[in-house]
Amino acid sequence: MRLKVSVVAAAALLVAAVTGPVSPARADSFRADQWYLKSLDVPRAHAISTGAGVIVGLVDTGAYPHPDVQRNLLSGTDLIPGESGDGRSDKDGHGTEMAALIAAHGRGADDGVLGIAPSAKVLPIKTSNDGNKAPSKEIGDGMRWAVDQKASVINVSAAVGPAFDIEDAAAAAAKADVVVVAGVGNTATSAIIGYPAAIEGVLAVGATDRSGKHAALSVKDSKVQICAPGVDITTAAPPKKYVDVDGTSAATAIVSGAVALVRAKFPSLSAPEVVHQLTATADDIGPPGKDKECGFGRLNLVKALTADVPPLKGTSASAKPGEGSTPPTTTSTAGTAPSAGADPASNNMPLVIGGVLVGLAVAGGLVAALIFRRRRSF
What we know:
By secondary structure, the chain is an alpha/beta fold. It has helices spanning about 10-20, 30-35, 35-40, 40-45, 95-105, 135-150, 165-175, 250-265, 270-280, 300-305, and strands spanning about 5, 55-60, 75-80, 120-125, 155, 180-185, 205-210, 225-230, 235, 240-245, 360, 365-370, 370, 375. The longest helix is centred in the last third of the chain and has 18 residues, at about 250-265.
């Protein structure tokens, strides 16, 4: 397990408090730490779509209004028995981390972290106070609540055992033309794909590492449909922190952001057609064709937004998401190859790191400028 601590010009500011004025602060490093933005060619994708007008239901531990994502957080709900609220609180941090991956807008041009769909809105639906424990009833209730609130994408960065509550909720989402995106699960906790990813019609997401290959932490199964970065992922955490995370949870949030981009760019596509747009343009990185590691391949954002994709086999109403996904006949642009790099070691135990405050002199006052990073798999 690795801990990163970033001190933003602490020494210089402390000296400046005594000796003179502080020079203008430079951009923080967190955007640069988001290696997957370059790997996915996000700047080119954002020139085409930023997810404007799309609501993503986030079924998770809530979402704290971190400065990098607060403008894109809607008032949601708290479905935990005995609790109440609008979902914009997060005791665990998992939901906030996913919200930022989906729709963080950052601060200014280069500060803070940036989400895959920075103009989309996140509807936080609190179903648990523990990112490692996801009760199936609350997950099902959260999915149905998102449908009722007109979300067009639902992110479930969790993998649990089979449950009728979740099956019924997934059916309701399909009927309402909502794309449900769910993680297949991590090998640290299960050898088989979990719910809701295992349900027909749900976009099941696995993870790739920094080299662009299937990540060892990601469960293999014939129902996996697509992979996205899920190792060494920098994101925001409550209240004003930044963390590095590993797992199919992160990959799922990235794909939910991609779904938001596609739904904004192609508003007439049905939910199955949106999934087909992503799977048909994915980069095949395993054995030719669909495989158990990454399904149809690795997410390619720019292709998904630009390629002329053949229609689904059969009618859009009857075709299953991912069924008959074939490569596009023409492609107007192609995404860049993933950045090279070793796959960082994954740790299977959650780590919660306490805070240490460093006083910095800014405009005659003291502020905390130590940014904490914790690595955990979920």
